[in-house]
Specification:
Blueprint lengths: L2 H14 L13 H9 L4 H14 L2 E4 L3 E4 L5 E6 L7 H21 L13 E7 L7 E5 L5 E6 L8 H19 L3 H17 L5 H7 L25 H23 L12 H14 L10
Parallel strand pairs: 1-4, 4-6
Antiparallel strand pairs: 2-3, 3-4, 5-6
Helix pairs in contact: 1-2, 2-3, 3-4, 4-5, 5-8, 6-7, 6-8, 8-9
């Protein structure tokens, strides 16, 4: 099977699963043809999905019916949910986020070349039954497609800003995995020391101790914990690292837009922060840090 044929087969599976798919083999762009067919029932969504693919190479696809083991969230039933009709706004937000991130990385790395990927992703849309978690999760599938599973009922996905931040978080997870679990090998020692010092129980005292070390302000609604330190959430250092990537995006965006930060730079906090920041910037972002030295 040629590379082009393989790509078309993968996209067909992402868009139609086991359902009958149209024959787009003779089309000048079989992928665009498949996308157009998938979203034929909603012309606005069809345009959005086509433009998403054209601009960034991303595919708006469908997830599968599955029972997810959600850690502290419990078991979650996820079902495929096309981002059409009342859910079309999610495709709008994803498309806007993809364009915004593409613009950010182009400006941020105008001369340097980062060891980081943000294009040619699959966004698989699902709906959680009776719950609003998880908002999203990331994986590299057996077919090597970089995928973000997107829950149209996710509690964090209620605005363009929330969608953009969530995609930044999940995008890092995939890059982290592609870098052979970099966060575990590089950040785990300091992370464990922070947790040992502060604890992870849900309490104002613990959160006050963790606050200087938390890269982002996202908290778990059910517990009040900083998401970066929420126990029973897989390998939590992965979440800490992904929140660190969100902080990088926020601070660098602010520097690009305003030439200064409105809050104290993360790297200028405790020593653990500075070490984690430098390691992240060097590994993924070609050493580019527009925030002035502390």
């Amino acid at each position: 099977m040629s590379s082009a044929t393989w790509i078309v087969a993968v996209v067909q599976a992402l868009l139609f699963g086991d359902a009958h798919a149209p024959d787009c083999s003779s089309d000048a762009d079989p992928v665009a043809c498949l996308i157009s067919a998938r979203f034929a029932k909603d012309s606005k969504a069809q345009t959005l999905a086509t433009e998403l693919y054209t601009k960034t190479g991303d595919i708006a696809a469908l997830g599968v019916d599955e029972i997810m083991e959600g850690g502290f969230r419990g078991k979650i039933h996820l079902v495929p949910e096309p981002p059409i009709g009342k859910y079309r706004k999610h495709l709008e937000w994803v498309s806007a986020a993809a364009a915004a991130l593409d613009d950010f990385y182009a400006k941020q790395f105008d001369t340097a070349k980062p060891n980081y990927r943000w294009r040619e992703l699959a966004f698989r849309f699902v709906r959680s039954v009776g719950k609003h978690t998880p908002s999203a999760y990331a994986l590299i599938g057996a077919d090597a497609v970089w995928t973000i599973e997107y829950n149209v009922e996710g509690s964090l996905l209620t605005s363009a800003t929330g969608v953009r931040e969530t995609i930044v978080h999940e995008l890092f997870h995939i890059n982290d995995e592609a870098h052979k679990d970099w966060s575990q090998h590089t950040l785990a020692t300091d992370f464990k020391a922070i947790v040992k010092k502060c604890g992870t129980a849900s309490s104002p005292k613990v959160n006050a101790c963790l606050a200087p070390y938390a890269p982002n302000d996202t908290k778990v609604r059910a517990t009040g914990n900083y998401y970066a330190f929420q126990p029973n959430n897989g390998n939590v250092v992965h979440e800490y690292a992904a929140e660190l990537a969100v902080r990088y995006w926020k601070e660098q965006s602010e520097m690009l837009d305003n030439k200064k930060l409105s809050t104290k730079a993360f790297k200028c906090g405790p020593p653990e922060n500075g070490r984690a920041w430098r390691a992240l910037v060097d590994e993924f972002f070609a050493g580019v840090d527009r925030v002035p030295a502390c």
